């Protein structure tokens, strides 16, 4: 009987010691994986933009020094797709189309006769490649590609309209900007862009050519899917 009492007492103390040690053990749950901020940049997006444009149209054929400078607001849509090829670098393709009603009249003196040349930039667009470096929610980038512009030229003398031509000029564009991820799906943008749309004949025999270049700054907002 005495031996049984001693065994029960020993068992009681041993079980209490084990429970006490178990209570002191801290349970370490596995840490949640860190969120990769670069993941906000990959994928498709579409947005709208507005900006201010400075355009210069230079005329070749009548007078090599003749040019028309115009400026004004522009706006349009852009869309693209981004690929992340490391934790920091990004490559993307983007297209945009913009309304740009820039118009300027210039006087041309040929012999003793005065003419008025009107140059109007009606729209412009581009297909570009982008390369960016991801700094968490900031994405500074450079971009370049093919640029397009719709230009209308009109020539008058006195009250006589000598004709209007509409051309689509093709050239190149270069730019730099920065995107900011306001949320994982809402992207803000600020950008500067230079575009050279090349020369294009504006008469039947291409004896007179016009060259368009533009500088513009623009702000945009896009939704990433």
Automatic annotation (TrEMBL):
One of its GO terms (cellular component) is cell outer membrane. It is found in: Cell outer membrane. InterPro entries: Beta-barrel_OMP, OM_autotransptr_brl_dom, OMP-like, OMP/PagP_B-barrel. Keywords: Cell outer membrane, Membrane, Signal, Transmembrane, Transmembrane beta strand. The keyword Amino-acid biosynthesis does not apply. SUPFAM superfamilies: OMPA-like. NCBIfam families: autotrans_barl. This is Outer membrane immunogenic protein. It comes from Pseudochrobactrum saccharolyticum.
